[in-house]
Design goal:
It contains 17 helices and 3 strands. The protein is mainly alpha-helical and about 375 residues long. It has a 3-stranded antiparallel β-sheet with strand order 1-2-3. The chain binds acetyl coenzyme *A (ACO).
């Protein structure tokens, strides 16, 4: 039975958008928005970006510690063995509309993947880990398959011995990336892997909290990530750069956008009140790729927008601000930027789902009712 006094206490403390509300205990990651510090299972994101690989980070998020060499090799092998998509899912992707948003295609394909996992309802740690491995291994394959099939090309099978990052680029383009591009993609995947109770991770935990299976929880998380206020912002940042086109037009463009009270994509964050530590790395990559490709204008526009935005609104760039230009300069289509985010964040989502299953309680908050009460029912012909 509801306890009115507990509801009153809860609603009194519920700010818009649940800002500042602590809704779960987690050891996976933590964001210190004041000091701009992000950690995964105790390790600073800068150390992980400098020294680790995406595979190591996935292991860390799921197991709470870094793998030993033999464990990492075994883990890589297991991921590699789980990359093959069920043929029915590839065929289904081939029947999606050519102009479908890739995030919608990913969401639909992941939902269908559940049909082909006869053990999907096994929510034990072992069973859920098995599903987490399949999903994490198959996300890059699904996205590369979507990209190839919508362009009338045959999918490229993953290659043994390549990292998830290198394999993703290989399957997308049909040729192996340079070592540097593979490493940049690897670090991008590390940087996006987890971010505490962001909107999509919270969604995943809410669905998992009902004891729905991992495919359902991840499908819902993909939908949450696709929105322009969350992961969808990276594509929109690149669209903005293409629209501005020249660095000398950046300041005027931004002033006009602010005068029209537009939300400028790639700026602002619910938690950070300083520079997002992930953007420190992404800025570096965007600059490096621009110089390597002889396209320094995108970075110049980004820097002008950053300065003016800080002067005018005291807002900092978020993770989505620089990633788009780095991916664009790698020759990746704009609408795949958010799916790349998903290729990384699947590791954090599944880590949180594992944590939720291990110590579950249904997530069921209250709403503050603002409608009328005690209305008399009026028969339909008398309204
Ligand atoms: N452009 C212009 N003004 C902004 C922006 C922005 N990008 N972000 C915040 N503001 C302003 C708001 O208008 C508001 O001003 P006001 O107090 O004068 O009304 C103030 O800053 C506070 O903003 P809120 O909207 O209350 O911030 P909230 O925490 O609700 O939203 C969000 C955070 C959604 C990220 C917001 O900053 C935004 O829409 N940014 C653009 C989209 C984006 O880049 N999303 C990616 C976020 S990172 C991620 O999810 C992976």
């Amino acid at each position: 039975m509801d306890k009115p006094e507990s509801k009153a206490a809860a609603t009194a403390k519920s700010p818009a958008g649940l800002e500042g509300v602590v809704a779960a205990e987690s050891s996976i990651g933590d964001v210190d928005g004041i000091n701009g510090v992000l950690i995964y299972q105790g390790y600073n994101i800068h150390d992980l970006a400098e020294h680790s690989t995406f595979e190591e980070v996935i292991y860390l998020l799921w197991h709470g510690r870094l793998p030993k060499r033999a464990e990492l090799e075994d883990f890589r092998r297991t991921l590699s063995e789980n990359q093959t998509l069920p043929a029915e899912v590839s065929e289904m992707i081939g029947r999606f509309p050519r102009d479908a948003e890739p995030m919608d295609s990913l969401r639909t394909a992941v939902s269908a993947l559940g049909f082909h996992d006869s053990q999907s309802r096994d929510l034990s740690r072992e069973g859920a880990l098995r599903a987490a491995i399949k999903l994490t291994a198959q996300f890059p394959v699904i996205i590369a398959t979507i990209e190839r099939l919508r362009n009338g090309q045959e999918p490229v099978a993953p290659k043994d011995g390549l990292s998830l990052a290198a394999n993703f680029l290989y399957m997308l383009k049909g040729e192996e990336p340079s070592e540097r591009e593979a490493r940049i993609m690897d670090v991008c995947l590390i940087l996006h892997a987890d971010h505490e109770l962001n909107a999509s991770t919270f969604t995943a935990r809410v669905v998992a909290g009902t004891l729905a299976d991992m495919y359902g929880a991840v499908t819902a998380a993909i939908a949450a990530l696709s929105g322009p206020l969350h992961g969808g912002a990276n594509t929109n940042v690149m669209k903005m750069l293409l629209e501005i086109e020249k660095p000398e037009r950046a300041e005027e463009w931004l002033r006009e956008a602010l005068a029209q009270k537009k939300k400028v994509m790639g700026f602002g964050h619910r938690v950070y009140r300083t520079e997002d530590p992930r953007s420190t790395w992404l800025r570096k990559f965007s600059k490096e790729m621009g110089e390597a490709r002889g396209q320094t204008q995108w970075n110049a526009i980004l820097e002008t927008l950053r300065e003016v935005m800080f002067r005018e609104k005291k807002l900092y760039p978020n993770v989505d601000y620089y990633s788009g230009s780095a991916y664009y300069l790698m020759g990746i289509p704009l609408d795949l930027f958010t799916p790349i985010f998903a290729v990384s964040r699947i590791s954090g989502w599944t880590g949180h789902i594992l944590e939720q299953y291990a110590n579950n309680r249904l997530i069921r908050p209250r709403a503050e009712y603002t409608g009328p009460r005690d209305l008399s029912y009026v028969p339909i012909d008398e309204r």
